[in-house]
């Protein structure tokens, strides 16, 4: 089967500093792929490069469309939703406005209303706070809001940057359970960048290990999870 | 007591002018998070365009609408042509660009239409309404127009998708791009709208202060003061701030002995600074709460 | 102006390259100094006067740079301190018969105190609000100087006329040349002081406040005190410049110290490079010479020309002359 996203020889740099040295990976339609690695390995940069937010070269093929020359706004319009590092909340706007912004590129008003109600079913806490300034939400609530905002795009592919960051373990479980639900019931493909490897491997179908800007290892998530030597040397658990 | 009311009424009348300008200032601040020093000159230039259209025989409201359209296009173009290439330049470089725009518009207007003072017609007439000629028909009309613009803006930002997108683009450009908003276009729209609102302000103000290239100099200052006093995040606050500045200025001139009359403007400004020291976000400004 | 954000900071560089470009910089500095020392001997008196004004504006810009570039506080009102310096000198000379040389340090001191006192309430104000407060100061200055109750001292709208001093000890210099060297000497002294201040412990505290006030506070920096003190030092520099200007121009009057002056200083700062002290020289040159150039290009549209030149300069060097020199140095290094 042809993958939804096909990345070959991706390089990226900040100023003079090269961070990615040609990485290759695929994301299958309707599957969850995780990108694991230590701090500074280039995980976040990979996501940013996919969205055209850093200088990069190589080929990025999204369902037959080349993304490398496109601007962030246009990439989003193809159905790629990015939940960025730090969650990207519009702190001065209300929770509901944040959700509406997620659907900014869509046209049909009634469907958008319906989607907002659906997000509220996923995250009842957001509904309780719908009129509140989003900056006043707790970290976990802002993470939910970020996921909800991304879903409002009705994306084909979601890029999630450390969805577990700074959250209490219980909330992390909750967020990951919802992500699994989203994949299973809505068929959204995902690329998840995580430091919490065990959690990400439980959810993911495929996994890639990135080390100083290069892919060190890849394979089905279950295999990597069960391979003790990999766990010991790369994942540290 | 009678003088007091007289002065307050007079203050409200001039305050209407400041409120108009303050609204334009807040408008552009919301859209681009900049205080545009050239805004007054842009408004003056728009007013000259309206004057020219009237000279060519356009009916008043046709000239009004046409001027708004031209100003919108002009503001939009200035953002695209002059400011876009400097997106990543430091803040102070933008400030210099604003000063440059100021010089350019002022000089161009003087060059094209010369520096003689020109009368500008009012659509509301000049009949005195009340307050012994302090508030005339034009002043009342001007205040009404300001309130209508305020209402339209409020509705635009609150209830339209473009309005929401503009607010988002200003508040958090990176996130805005990630939901597919064309941030650059939003900034240009903001400039266009601000130029149009400036044009409304200029056209309303010109019958009172007369038309000439330097007419906006002190008005912009009062407009800034009003906007900052009311809070830069609040269009309604800005309008209130504009009226307040007018009243404060008049009362300071009357009641503060000796220096009052000579130092009307500095005293008004000093009072505003005092207010800001107590309430650093302005009277109606919103503090953005942020959790780390 | 926007809510805070970056105010153009020099990028960090590695040491060996620093040393290499350091030598180049040293040679360049020596060349500039040599030109500054020798040129008045070969120029017309009016040109010497213009160059003196350039140095004076450079001193004022240096002061503004300490405040804005190194401490991150905006000021649209530094013309006020320039005016205070100028009037202090003029009043001391006119009413108390004090020799001009002594009035300069006094003017500096008066401005330091005024700046410190103004800096105290300004502490509560951030970015745009501080800009408005200083803007108000600039607006108020000429009006306060014109006040009738102060007229006895300030001379009201008429201002005060001062006598230009001759060169002492029978030096074979014209008045203009002598004042040029006085200004150059003062300027170099102040440059040396500013450089040492910036590189000292206090300098690091000042810059830490610019970059992250919360972190600076938690490291034990007394943020309020440092901000107010920086305001004072900045005003001192600008006040000394004002004092020199009063002597050189031989005249002070309220309308020389309007908002236009404050704005010009700010433009000079940006053109020279925010956060780069030697840039003040470029800024001073801009203030003195660019309006003349604009005038020559087109009389009727001189204002528009002036604006266009400003826009072009910002296009060519978005971070001022300092930024341009840094870019050139980086490029040189990479070759």
Automatic annotation (TrEMBL), chain A:
List, alphabetically, the Pfam families matched.
ABC_tran
GO MF, one term, reads:
ATP hydrolysis activity
Per the database record, which ranges form the ABC transporter domain? 5-237
Q: Which GO terms describe its biological process?
A: L-amino acid transport
What InterPro entries does the entry give? AAA+_ATPase (IPR003593), ABC_transporter-like_ATP-bd (IPR003439), ABC_transporter-like_CS (IPR017871), BCAA_Transport_ATP-bd_LivF (IPR052156), P-loop_NTPase (IPR027417)
Q: What are the alphabetically sorted keywords of the record?
A: Amino-acid transport, ATP-binding, Nucleotide-binding, Transport
Q: Which PROSITE patterns match?
A: ABC_TRANSPORTER_1, ABC_TRANSPORTER_2
Similarity section:
Belongs to the ABC transporter superfamily.
Q: What is this protein called?
A: ABC transporter ATP-binding protein
Q: Which organism is it from?
A: Zhengella mangrovi
From TrEMBL, chain B:
Describe its membrane topology: Multi-pass membrane protein
Its main subcellular localisation, reduced to a broad class, is membrane
Q: Give a Gene Ontology cellular component term annotated to this protein.
A: plasma membrane
Keyword field: Amino-acid transport, Cell membrane, Membrane, Transmembrane, Transmembrane helix, Transport
**Single annotated GO MF:** transmembrane transporter activity
Q: Which GO terms describe its biological process?
A: amino acid transport
The UniProt record lists the keyword Transmembrane? yes
The protein's matches in InterPro entries, at most eight in alphabetical order, are given as: ABC_transp_permease, BCAA_transport_permease
What domain of life does the UniProt record list for this protein's source?
Answer: Bacteria
- Show the stretches that span the lipid bilayer: 6-28, 60-79, 91-113, 133-157, 187-209, 265-284
Cellular compartment(s) = Cell membrane
Q: Which Pfam families match?
A: BPD_transp_2
Family statement drawn from the similarity comment of this UniProt entry:
Belongs to the binding-protein-dependent transport system permease family. LivHM subfamily.
Name the record gives this protein:
Branched-chain amino acid ABC transporter permease
Q: To which species is this protein native?
A: Zhengella mangrovi
Automatic annotation (TrEMBL), chain C:
InterPro entries, per the entry: ABC_transp_permease, LivM-like
Which keywords appear in this protein's UniProt record, sorted alphabetically? Cell membrane, Membrane, Transmembrane, Transmembrane helix
Query: Which compartment or compartments is the protein found in?
Result: Cell membrane
Instruction: Write down any Gene Ontology CC term.
Output: plasma membrane
Query: What topology does the record note for this protein and the membrane?
Result: Multi-pass membrane protein
Q: Which GO terms describe its molecular function?
A: branched-chain amino acid transmembrane transporter activity
Sequence intervals crossing the membrane: 23-43, 49-67, 74-93, 99-120, 127-145, 178-194, 228-253, 259-291, 303-325
Q: Specify the protein name.
A: Branched-chain amino acid ABC transporter permease
Species name: Zhengella mangrovi
């Amino acid at each position: 089967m042809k993958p939804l996203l096909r990345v070959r020889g991706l390089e990226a740099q900040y100023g003079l500093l090269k961070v990615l040295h040609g990485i290759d990976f695929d994301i299958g339609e309707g599957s969850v792929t995780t990108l694991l690695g230590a701090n500074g390995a280039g995980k976040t940069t990979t996501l940013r490069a996919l969205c055209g937010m850093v200088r990069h070269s190589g080929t990025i093929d999204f369902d037959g469309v080349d993304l490398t020359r496109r601007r962030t706004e246009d990439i989003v319009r193809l159905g790629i939703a990015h939940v960025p590092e730090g969650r990207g909340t519009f702190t001065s706007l209300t929770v509901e406005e944040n959700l509406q912004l997620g659907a900014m590129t869509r046209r049909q008003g009634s469907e958008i209303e319906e989607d907002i109600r659906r997000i509220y079913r996923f995250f009842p806490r957001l509904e309780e706070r719908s009129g509140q300034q989003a900056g006043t939400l707790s970290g976990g609530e802002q993470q939910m809001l970020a996921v909800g905002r991304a879903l409002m795009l009705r994306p084909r592919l979601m890029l999630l940057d450390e969805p577990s960051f700074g959250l209490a373990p219980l909330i992390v479980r909750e967020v990951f359970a919802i992500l699994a639900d989203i994949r299973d019931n809505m068929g959204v493909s995902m690329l998840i960048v995580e430091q919490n490897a065990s959690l990400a491997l439980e959810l993911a179908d495929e996994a890639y290990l990135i080390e100083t800007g290069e892919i060190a290892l890849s394979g089905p998530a279950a295999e990597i999870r069960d391979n003790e030597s990999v766990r010991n040397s790369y994942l540290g658990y | 007591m009678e003088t007091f009311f007289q002065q307050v009424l007079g203050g409200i009348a001039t305050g209407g002018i400041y409120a108009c300008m303050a609204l334009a200032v807040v408008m552009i601040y919301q859209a681009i998070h900049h205080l545009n020093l050239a805004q007054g000159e842009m408004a003056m230039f728009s007013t000259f365009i309206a004057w020219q259209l009237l000279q060519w025989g356009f009916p008043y409201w046709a000239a009004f609408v046409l001027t708004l359209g031209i100003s919108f296009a002009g503001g939009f173009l200035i953002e695209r042509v002059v400011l876009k290439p400097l997106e990543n330049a430091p803040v102070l470089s933008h400030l210099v660009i604003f000063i440059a725009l100021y010089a350019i518009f002022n000089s161009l207007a003087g060059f094209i239409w010369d520096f003689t003072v020109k009368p500008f017609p009012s659509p509301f007439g000049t009949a005195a309404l009340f307050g012994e000629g302090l508030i005339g028909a034009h002043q009342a009309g001007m205040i009404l127009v300001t309130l209508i613009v305020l209402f339209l803006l409020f509705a635009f930002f609150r209830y339209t998708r473009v309005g929401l997108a503009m607010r988002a683009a200003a508040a958090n450009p990176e996130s805005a791009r990630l939901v597919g908003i064309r941030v650059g276009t939003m900034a240009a729209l903001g400039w266009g709208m601000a130029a149009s609102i400036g044009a409304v302000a200029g056209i309303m103000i010109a019958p009172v202060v007369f038309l000439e290239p330097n007419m906006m100099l002190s008005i912009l200052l009062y407009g800034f003061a009003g906007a900052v006093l009311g809070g830069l995040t609040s269009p309604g606050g800005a309008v209130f701030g504009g009226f307040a500045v007018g009243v404060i200025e008049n009362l300071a001139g009357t009641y503060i002995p000796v220096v009052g009359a000579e130092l009307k403007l500095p005293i008004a400004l000093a009072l505003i600074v005092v207010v800001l020291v107590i309430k650093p976000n302005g009277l109606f400004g919103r503090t953005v709460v942020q959790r780390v | 102006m926007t809510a805070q954000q970056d105010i153009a900071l020099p990028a960090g560089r590695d040491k060996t390259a620093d040393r290499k470009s350091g030598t180049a910089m040293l040679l360049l500095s020596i060349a500039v100094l040599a030109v500054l020392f020798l040129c008045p001997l070969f120029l017309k008196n009016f040109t010497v006067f213009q160059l003196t004004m350039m140095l004076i504006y450079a001193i004022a810009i240096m002061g503004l740079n300490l405040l804005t570039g190194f401490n991150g506080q905006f000021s649209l009102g530094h013309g006020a301190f320039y005016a205070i310096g100028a009037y202090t000198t003029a009043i001391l000379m006119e009413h108390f018969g004090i020799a001009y040389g002594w009035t300069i340090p006094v003017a500096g001191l008066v401005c330091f105190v005024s700046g410190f006192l103004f800096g105290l309430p300004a502490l509560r104000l951030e970015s745009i609000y501080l800009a408005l407060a200083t803007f108000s100061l600039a607006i108020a200055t000429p009006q306060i100087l014109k006040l009738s109750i102060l007229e006895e001292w300030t001379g009201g709208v008429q201002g005060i006329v001062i006598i230009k001093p001759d060169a002492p000890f029978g030096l074979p210099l014209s008045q203009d040349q002598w004042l040029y060297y006085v200004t150059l000497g003062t300027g170099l002294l102040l440059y040396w002081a500013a450089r040492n201040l910036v590189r000292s412990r206090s300098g690091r505290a000042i810059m830490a406040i610019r970059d992250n006030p919360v972190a600076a506070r938690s490291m034990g920096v007394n943020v309020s005190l440092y901000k107010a003190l920086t305001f004072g030092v900045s005003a001192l520099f600008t006040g000394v410049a004002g004092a020199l200007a009063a002597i050189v121009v031989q005249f002070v009057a309220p309308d020389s110290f309007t908002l236009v002056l404050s704005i010009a200083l700010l433009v000079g700062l940006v053109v020279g490079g925010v956060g780069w002290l030697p840039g003040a020289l470029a800024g001073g040159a801009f203030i003195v010479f660019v309006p003349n150039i604009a005038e020559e290009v087109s009389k009727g549209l001189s204002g528009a020309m002036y604006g266009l030149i400003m826009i072009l300069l910002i296009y060519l060097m978005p971070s001022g002359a300092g930024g341009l020199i840094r870019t050139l140095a980086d490029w040189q290094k990479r070759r």
